[in-house]
Design goal:
Strand content: under 5%
Order of helices and strands: HHHHHHHH
Radius of gyration: 22 Å
CATH topology of the largest domain: 434 Repressor (Amino-terminal Domain)
Low-confidence stretches: none
Largest sheet: none
Oligomer: single chain
Shape: elongated
Helix content: 55-70%
Distance between the termini: 20 Å
Number of helices: 8
CATH superfamily of the largest domain: lambda repressor-like DNA-binding domains
CATH architecture of the largest domain: Orthogonal Bundle
Structural class: mainly alpha
Number of strands: 0
Mean pLDDT: 77
Length: 143
């Protein structure tokens, strides 16, 4: 995978879509895991919350986007759990860029067998900002 610019790595729309996918996958996995921990089948959970097995199946699908808080609350109650929703501030842009930078470095390492000094030189040439001067030696030596 090659990136022609930092903008391709740090695309806010792409990052938002990935974050939404992560949340959907996490909620789906949580419903599945908690249902299994309670020893319930999809059909049994569906009956407890007054819906059908196919609805539970969709809720446990990471690609499904139709989850509602009221339905999640009914599931939590049926599983003797408390539903908690937390909102946090988005990360500052610098942290997002730092994450993208780390991913680029990981891809560089996988694509070539770069020695750390070669990698440091390459990274300094494409990203000379101040925080990177501290990050580059640490990142380049990490395996």
């Amino acid at each position: 995978m090659r990136f022609s610019s930092w903008r391709q790595v740090y695309d806010p729309e792409r990052k938002a879509a990935l974050q939404e996918e992560r949340v959907n996958a996490e909620v789906a996995r949580l419903i599945h895991d908690m249902r299994n921990a309670a020893g319930l089948s999809q059909q049994q959970l569906a009956e407890l919350i007054g819906t059908t097995q196919s609805v539970i199946s969709r809720l446990e699908d990471a690609d499904y986007e139709g989850r509602s808080l009221s339905l999640l609350e009914r599931i939590a109650t049926a599983l003797n759990q408390k539903l908690t929703v937390v909102m946090t501030a988005r990360e500052p842009e610098e942290l997002e860029i730092r994450e993208a930078f780390h991913r680029v470095v990981q891809m560089l390492r996988r694509s070539r067998d770069c020695r750390s000094t070669t990698l440091q030189r390459k990274l300094r040439s494409i990203a000379p900002s101040s925080w990177l001067s501290n990050e580059i030696p640490r990142i380049a030596h990490r395996r």
